Prior knowledge:
Helix content: 55-70%
Low-confidence stretches: none
Number of strands: 0
Largest sheet: none
Mean pLDDT: 79
Shape: elongated
Radius of gyration: 19 Å
Distance between the termini: 29 Å
Amino acid sequence: MTKTRDDLTISEALRDPLIAMVLRADGVKLEDFKQLLETAARKREPRSKSVGNMIGALASRANLPAVPCFG
């Protein structure tokens, strides 16, 4: 099976035993952590659809031609 992502989902993070230990050690309630993650997810900007779009956006901000440096 091929792994397609590196980040945990919110539900995976909430079930992770290491995260649970850190939360307990820091005195953070699981529900508060859940709300924090959900708020951050709602506010997060969507990722660029492609590297080409990102290069173009950066180039336009810097007034440079959008020419990739790789093949």
